[in-house]
């Protein structure tokens, strides 16, 4: 197993830090020198994830200012590891003081205690959503490197509670999504979703939802056939996020309702000579490899565990106690999960793009090697013929 704090192969990163430490940070590796990077775009995505954005997110004040301490100089990559630090500025550890002894329902306190024997209960420690700021920073760079290859990654909130947007994946656009606080693809659904969130909030409660990510312009051929299928890697990447309880690609769980004749995506050749499919039930991946159609994935986001509504739960001594959260938390985390999910999808895709480019480069190198080997063999043959003629000549001259 790679380090459990690392992710990726050709484009890899490692994160460190906890929600209530001084800093959190990420170190990225595997990026060629000389590539232009827009550092404002990194901050833009961090701002989309940060708390305190609107009435449907936690009012905690964390500016999430990225400090790029290495690897980017004068707006270009240097080829050395990129390190980004984010200072934790709003550490109200006292908000959590009286919960040190309580096994918080829906949070990782009990499981961390079982695993490590200790737990930094302040804000969830490593299990906190705060760590995802680092993935957003890493993903913002990945998105730029993908954009340089014509690939874009767009996330949005498809559903909150029982309110679902029916905007087609083909018609989602970033300005509509970013034009409302819940990041729904249309204003009418957004209004209903916000009402559901405010109603839960008024009860001291929370609601879940579905976040969808669409990849446009993805080339065919990304993904490995068995253990690193593109869809398997996407599922893994998204399931590494807190609060994610389900993953589907394309028609996903709905495909069980269809017959093969309805669920298969028939092929045709387009005007550019590319093979396309008339439908996209597969969600852009067949046999673990991208087929050139849009990649469409969805994740189920559970209702945030931290709620101000009182519940009964056990403390570490096994006594049942009344418990409610006094800190400041999100009534629905979908709007903040959107940029994080985009980042994870971008990180997986870029990793596979770079692996594929290596394969292509290897086969080009192999072709040249084969040509050189052919020339070597021909030269050996000529040398042998030359020796034969030389022997023949010396025999004739004697
Ligand atoms: C971006 C993001 C923000 C989150 N914010 C909160 C939050 O404010 N309150 C909360 O209870 N859980 C929040 N979570 C989820 C918890 O981290 C998660 O539920 C918890 O660690 C338990 O893990 P599990 O739900 O995957 O089992 C957030 C997750 C993400 C990805």
Could you explain the architecture of this structure?
The protein has helices spanning 39-49, 109-116, 132-147, 174-177, 187-202, 230-239, 260-263, 334-397; strands at 6-7, 12-16, 23-29, 66-70, 72-73, 76-77, 82-87, 152-160, 163-164, 209-216, 244-249, 267-269, 275-277, 285-286, 289-290, 295-301, 311-314, 320-323. With 398 residues, the protein is an alpha+beta fold. Strand 5 and strand 6 (76-77) form a beta hairpin. Helix 1 (39-49) packs across helix 3 (132-147), helix 1 packs antiparallel against helix 8 and helix 6 packs antiparallel against helix 8 (334-397). The longest helix has 64 residues, at 334-397. The chain is elongated and about 115 Å long. The mean pLDDT is 91. The structure holds flavin mononucleotide.
Average pLDDT rating? 91
CATH class: Alpha Beta
Number of domain units: 1
Helix content: 25-40%
Q: So what's the oligomer here?
A: single chain
Please, how many helices? 8
State the distance separating the first and last CA atoms: 73 Å
| Main beta-sheet annotation | 5 strands, antiparallel
Low-confidence stretches: none
Order of strands, main sheet, comes to 1-2-3-7-4
Backbone structural class: alpha+beta
- Rg, alpha carbons: 27 Å
Instruction: Tell me the series of helices and strands, N- to C-terminal.
Output: EEEHEEEEHHEEHHEHEHEEEEEEEH
**What is the count of β-strands?**
18
Strand content: 15-25%
Can you tell me the CATH architecture? Answer: 4-Layer Sandwich
What would the CATH topology be? Chorismate synthase, AroC fold
What is the overall shape?
elongated
